């Protein structure tokens, strides 16, 4: 029976919408607590060497400047590396801000100037005298391929790639072959909100920390361990996050600096980074890739070889799954995979939207296009012929896989059958038209998380979990889930997040939030329902006397019998009768934690297929992406409205990655030279045209009870490759070094 | 090895200019601030008036997150000193509407899901209001072009476009109907000879 409160799967406006459009949603740098001091970071101009002198006296003499923090005056803090490791830290020795005179990367923070006003702190930082002894740095990946090594276990979530069969044999069996190198430069997340932490000093070491993060608990653990603070001394709050894309997965150095200054000066302190300084921490690593494919007469793949070498810092081994997907996405017996790292004098890379897969899919999906041409097959037909019905990499069946539907529905919507294969064979006036495609695969994962459901005597339900909403729609989908679970209208439900005083949740990343928090919300609501039923039974309500939880339902703000809806009791009355101000229940994470220990019985993934049209000016070689159809199979879609937006945003990211985005390193300085929003190119409104998002139906009762796979990342996969493939189709030019800027086509 | 000096001692710090009273008319209200003359309008709003709806995304006039309306015209408030606006009427997102009484643009942004993280949103809305005030944009292509000073890293552009278009259509400001909506009409694709190599 359907109810008016069945919100799951319905397009629903964001519940945090009014706060965001009215400007009342407060981000980390917007908590104007009383007597606030401002910290401004001084960044190293050299990439390697050491600080030989800091002359802080003239700056300290300025009225209104409170302190200049540097390695010379930082108090004794935690000593062991593990105290500096956050939940997302890879293997190695994490960077410690202001720890020593040593410079390990360009724009490393070397000092924090704290003053009464932002203006004064900025000025004082600009005139701080610092001397360095510079050493030769190495920032060029191509020059250090020989030193590349296989990383160990890496960070959690990293799966060392597994080869299978015999690629050499497969290569020889093939009748058609392709082999090519692909590369892309470093990319920076550049969320719109600049990184900031406002630390409110509440006296006696007690801090309220408003942090820009994707995980309040991760930030809290980090500062607790380093500064020796108790859980009640370091509350981290992050109600709104102005974009993350992975950049907020690890605590960034402004958090350390703001807490340090606050504890030392016993004052409230805010530290905001500049847009330039946001190029001084984690980024998508520059990655060089090699792919070789071979096919038999019928177009079936006889061999796949995919090797990647990526940069990492001198002090941490950043690992991501770049090549593993190539052993899963297509059916092939002989797969040879390799992944290596090379250490450079840069900051440690960091997960960036669809980490690993975004990079790997660029190489694999362009290679698939090249192979299709070499084999004389349509790129879509070629993929269908190599469809994987069984995960050969994990040797497991798929819990569900509706990629065929993505191919079919995407191609139909796009009009793919009208494509003529020959490059340069389609035109619109004098413009060259190119149609290309690609696709990808992403993990459907779930992490243990706690949610609490609390019903008050007015009948208002508050559900809470210390997760984040980085624009993903978490506030909204959790409100939908909770409202449907308890049969309440959306207005009677509030979802609260982003606070370490709430039940513990993991960082928001990996596209796991909908599954992790969503299922926890369902469980918490189920437990609350059981309590409410018990209360009804206590009240001697005859209809519920022998009722079990399965015999009742929650609808219209009531608890009622499934068999006889007239037998009902208002939820509000149950709370009032309980004698307590509210009735509450939390889910348990015991089972979720056990699940993680058990070997998986199914391969659980989301998939997509993307079709792209470009129009290229034959003389100027300017490229416009005029149409994109992205068909996604990601299990149950909780809110088609916010989900569509996420996939649309992913398409914009893919176009950006294909045509614009790159952090350009000047190796003479070892620094990203386009470190601002004018020279780090991302699409603007005029660059983006029609984007069609299709969610194909995909039921999955194995992935998790809600059947949801997450859509924050999968939509990005294959987009950059599809754009590049479309450019080939339009122009006959195969560009393998992204982004495809005009100079590479002229 | 070489020596690098970040700031030559020749440029010794000088005492910054003292604060001075600056009167601003913001959202119809008069405010008098005591700020240093180098304070930007953006920082004056955010740090001295707690009007944090106006966002800082780059501080260099590159992203548009700080867009406010000055005498009805959209400007990047990060590129403007507060002290130069004593005679201006300044309107910020807080002055366009409130959570309980949203402006048509604010409501359209919600209805079209024209944002995700929400950080560029006040700037986008102020910019859209400025665009409407200018009266130049008459179709989708022009709205896209003239909304291109506001970066949205979440990539909500198509939804921003449809939100702005809806408000403009309701106000009778659109001349052509879906004039340049790529894909609105079937593109004419004719097979031609491949280019000669």
What would you say this structure looks like, in words?
The complex is a heterodimer of chains A (about 750) and B (about 200). By secondary structure, chain A is of the alpha+beta class. Chain A folds into three domains: about 15-20 and about 445-595, Aldehyde oxidase/xanthine dehydrogenase, molybdopterin binding domain (Aldehyde Oxidoreductase, domain 4, 2-Layer Sandwich), CATH 3.30.365; about 30-135 and about 190-275, Aldehyde oxidase/xanthine dehydrogenase, a/b hammerhead (Aldehyde Oxidoreductase, domain 3, Alpha-Beta Complex); about 145-185 and about 285-445 and about 605-745, Aldehyde oxidase/xanthine dehydrogenase, molybdopterin binding domain (Aldehyde Oxidoreductase, domain 4, 2-Layer Sandwich), CATH 3.30.365.10. Chain A contains 15 helices and 31 strands. Chain A has a seven-stranded mixed β-sheet. In chain A, strands 16-14-13-8-31 form a five-stranded mixed β-sheet, with helices on both faces. A five-stranded mixed β-sheet of chain A has the order 17-18-26-27-30, sandwiched between helices. The longest helix of chain A is centred in the last third of the chain and has 26 residues, at about 515-540. Chain A is globular and about 80 Å long. The relative contact order of chain A is 0.14. The model of chain A has no long low-confidence stretch (mean pLDDT about 95). Chain B has about 200 residues and is α+β, with helices and mostly antiparallel strands. Chain B has one domain (about 20-170): Ubiquitin-like (UB roll). Helices cover about 30% and strands about 15% of the residues of chain B. Chain B has six helices and seven strands; from the N terminus they run βββαβββαααααβ. Chain B has helices spanning about 40-50, 95, 105-110, 120-135, 140-145, 155-170, and strands at about 1-5, 20-25, 30-35, 65-70, 75, 90, 190. Chain B has a five-stranded mixed β-sheet, sandwiched between helices. In chain B, strand 2 (about 20-25) and strand 3 form a beta hairpin. Chain B is globular and about 60 Å long. Residues about 180-190 of chain B have low confidence and may be disordered. Chains A and B meet through helix 1, strand 2, helix 3, strand 7 and strand 17 of A and strand 1, helix 1, helix 3, helix 4 and helix 5 of B. Strand 17 of chain A pairs antiparallel with strand 7 of chain B, so a sheet runs across the interface.
């Amino acid at each position: 029976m359907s109810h008016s409160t069945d919100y799951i799967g319905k397009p629903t406006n964001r519940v945090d919408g009014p706060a965001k459009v009215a400007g009342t949603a407060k981000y980390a740098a917007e908590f104007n607590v009383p007597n606030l001091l401002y910290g401004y970071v001084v960044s190293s101009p050299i990439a390697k060497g050491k600080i030989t002198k800091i002359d802080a006296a003239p700056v300290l003499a300025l009225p209104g400047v409170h302190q200049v923090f540097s390695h010379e005056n930082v108090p004794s803090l935690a000593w062991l590396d593990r105290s500096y490791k956050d939940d997302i830290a890879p293997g190695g020795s994490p960077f410690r801000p202001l720890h020593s005179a040593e410079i390990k990367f360009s724009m490393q923070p070397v000092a924090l100037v704290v003053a009464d006003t932002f203006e004064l702190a900025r000025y004082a930082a600009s005139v701080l005298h610092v001397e360095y002894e510079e050493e030769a740095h190495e920032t060029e990946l191509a020059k250090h391929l020989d030193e590349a090594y296989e990383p160990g276990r890496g960070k959690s979530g990293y799966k060392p790639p597994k080869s299978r069969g015999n690629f050499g044999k497969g290569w020889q069996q093939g009748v058609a072959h392709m082999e090519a190198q692909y590369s892309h430069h470093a990319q920076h997340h550049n969320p719109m909100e600049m990184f900031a932490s406002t630390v409110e000093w509440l006296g006696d070491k007690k801090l309220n920390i408003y942090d820009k993060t994707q995980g309040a608990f991760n930030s809290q653990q980090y500062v607790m361990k380093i500064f020796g603070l108790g859980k009640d001394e370091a509350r981290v709050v992050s109600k709104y996050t102005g974009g993350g894309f992975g950049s907020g997965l690890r605590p960034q150095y402004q958090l350390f600096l703001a807490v340090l200054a606050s504890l030392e000066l016993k004052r409230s302190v805010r530290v905001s980074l500049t847009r330039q300084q946001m190029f001084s921490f984690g980024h998508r690593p520059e990655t060089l890739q090699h792919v070789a494919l071979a096919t038999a007469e019928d177009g079936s793949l006889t061999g796949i070889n995919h090797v990647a070498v990526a940069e990492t810092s001198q002090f941490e081994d950043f690992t991501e799954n770049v090549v593993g997907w190539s052993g899963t996405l297509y059916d092939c017996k002989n797969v040879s995979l390799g992944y290596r790292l090379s250490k450079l004098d840069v900051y440690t890379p960091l997960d960036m939207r669809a980490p690993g897969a975004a990079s790997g899919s660029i190489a694999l999906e362009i290679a698939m296009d090249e192979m299709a041409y070499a084999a004389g097959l349509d790129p879509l037909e070629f993929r269908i012929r190599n469809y994987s019905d069984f995960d050969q990499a994990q040797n497991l069946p798929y819990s569900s896989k509706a990629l065929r539907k993505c191919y079919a529905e995407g191609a139909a919507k796009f009009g793919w059958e009208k494509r003529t294969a020959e490059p340069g064979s389609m035109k619109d006036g004098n413009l060259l038209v190119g149609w290309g495609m690609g696709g990808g695969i992403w993990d459907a994962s779930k992490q243990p998380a706690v949610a609490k459901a609390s019903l008050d005597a007015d009948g208002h339900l508050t559900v809470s979990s210390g997760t984040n909403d980085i624009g993903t729609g978490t506030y909204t989908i959790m409100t939908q889930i909770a409202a449907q679970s308890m049969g309440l209208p959306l207005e009677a439900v509030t979802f609260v997040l982003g606070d370490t005083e709430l039940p513990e949740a993991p960082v928001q990343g990996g596209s796991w939030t909908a599954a992790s928090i969503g299922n926890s919300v369902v469980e918490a609501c189920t437990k609350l329902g059981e309590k409410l039923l018990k209360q009804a039974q206590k009240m001697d309500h005859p209809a519920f006397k022998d009722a079990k939880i399965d015999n009742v339902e929650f609808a219209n703000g009531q608890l009622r019998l499934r068999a006889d809806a007239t037998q009902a009791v208002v939820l509000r009355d149950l709370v009032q009768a309980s004698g307590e101000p509210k009735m509450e229940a939390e889910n348990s994470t015991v089972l979720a934690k056990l699940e993680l220990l058990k070997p998986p019985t199914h391969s659980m993934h989301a998939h997509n297929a993307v079709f792209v049209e470009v129009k290229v000016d034959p003389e100027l070689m300017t490229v416009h992406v005029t149409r994109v159809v992205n068909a996604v199979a990601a299990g149950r879609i909780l809110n088609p409205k916010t989900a569509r937006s996420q996939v649309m945003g992913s398409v914009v990211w893919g176009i950006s990655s294909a045509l614009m985005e790159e952090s350009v390193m000047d190796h003479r300085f070892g620094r990203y030279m386009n470190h601002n929003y004018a020279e780090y190119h991302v699409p603007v409104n005029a660059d983006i045209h029609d984007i069609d998002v299709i969610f194909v139906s995909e039921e999955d009762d194995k992935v998790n009870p809600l059947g949801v796979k997450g859509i924050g990342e999968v939509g990005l996969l294959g987009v950059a490759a599809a754009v590049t493939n479309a450019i080939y189709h339009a122009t006959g030019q195969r560009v393998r070094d992204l982004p495809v800027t005009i100079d590479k086509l002229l | 090895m070489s020596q690098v000096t970040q700031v030559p001692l020749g440029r010794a710090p000088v005492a910054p200019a003292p604060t001075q009273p600056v009167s601003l008319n913001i959202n119809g209200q008069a405010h008098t601030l005591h700020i240093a003359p180098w304070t930007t309008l953006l920082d004056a709003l955010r740090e001295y008036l707690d009007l944090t709806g106006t966002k800082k995304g780059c501080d260099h006039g590159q992203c548009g997150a700080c867009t406010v309306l000055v005498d009805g015209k959209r400007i990047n408030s990060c590129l403007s000193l507060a002290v130069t606006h004593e005679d201006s009427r300044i309107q910020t997102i807080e002055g366009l509407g409130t959570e309980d009484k949203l402006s048509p643009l604010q409501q359209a942004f919600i209805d079209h899901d024209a944002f995700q993280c929400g950080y560029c949103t006040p700037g986008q809305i102020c910019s859209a209001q400025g665009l409407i005030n200018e009266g130049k944009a008459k179709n989708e292509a022009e709205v896209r072009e003239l909304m291109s000073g506001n970066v949205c890293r979440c990539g909500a552009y198509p939804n921003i476009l449809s939100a702005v278009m809806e408000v403009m259509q309701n106000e009778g400001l659109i001349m052509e109907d879906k004039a340049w909506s790529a894909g609105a009409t079937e593109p004419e694709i004719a097979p031609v000879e491949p280019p000669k190599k």
